[in-house]
């Protein structure tokens, strides 16, 4: 038996190599020597172990035009492990299974009966059970949960989500029963985490993620680390003034706040008032109308994009990032010009707006890829430890 110190060092080095493969799928063993600073012998040994454990897999060897030894690309394994990502939204839960490379392989949506914490958390427990069943013989190695508002990821507590009336909702009792590690974060921080791995802010040091859904949120990353603040409350942007006062009064008393003017709820409400969609119509109905070429729908969505742009401009002044990534339904290629317009109205350096403000590249599964990315980031801190814990559970 190796001593505990040596065993820990081996685990740390295995984590280093596995993370490098996750960060740069397709790397070869010689790339890994360069990236990790480990010896060629150590890398060979660790890669063999990670292959035997099913954490990484080999692709087809390639030879360069100048000849030499074939290069064997290494990628995160698509079998036999899964991570779970669950997004707790205003109207529904969305849950998914992803492989170790972050590709979503299964996704399902469950509508809430009520937004009260009890029924929603029962729904999350049932969804976790079902996703574990869908995973079948594949082992779930970690799960990530995300929801909007002020979320304390250390304590796994939703401190406040005023829009649905959640205060100090503790997720630990629900999650503690699982045999794999669980992680909780706010929707927008989870999106920022996924975006920096798979999306627009990949390789960017300083970025700001802005999410506009039924709620709004932001997450600033400095040197690749998401800033959480002293009380895990950094990035709450509900009360940024973004336009002329609207019909809904914010809980702060004003009517020009980002959180009441520019959300999916607000724009759907306006569309109902304007008679564009039916009385029970939602954002999806408005988007469908817009895709069919409706001018009224386009006008509404463009106005919203300008409002979101103003929030983006204010945030860019605060953080001076390399990139601002906008996600949610507002992130439409056709409305990027309106986002830029709104941002330029507020930016001190309006000339850089088109270099600065970009749309998400996370695609249709963004809301589940995000919490899955949180789970994966934690898994890759100590993959062999996570698998060992699973075996001894
Ligand atoms: Zn307000």
TrEMBL record:
<protein>
    <submittedName>
        <fullName>ROK family protein</fullName>
    </submittedName>
</protein>
<dbReference type="InterPro" id="IPR043129">
    <property type="entry name" value="ATPase_NBD"/>
</dbReference>
<dbReference type="InterPro" id="IPR036390">
    <property type="entry name" value="WH_DNA-bd_sf"/>
</dbReference>
<comment type="similarity">
    <text>Belongs to the ROK (NagC/XylR) family.</text>
</comment>
<dbReference type="InterPro" id="IPR000600">
    <property type="entry name" value="ROK"/>
</dbReference>
<dbReference type="Pfam" id="PF00480">
    <property type="entry name" value="ROK"/>
</dbReference>
<dbReference type="InterPro" id="IPR036388">
    <property type="entry name" value="WH-like_DNA-bd_sf"/>
</dbReference>
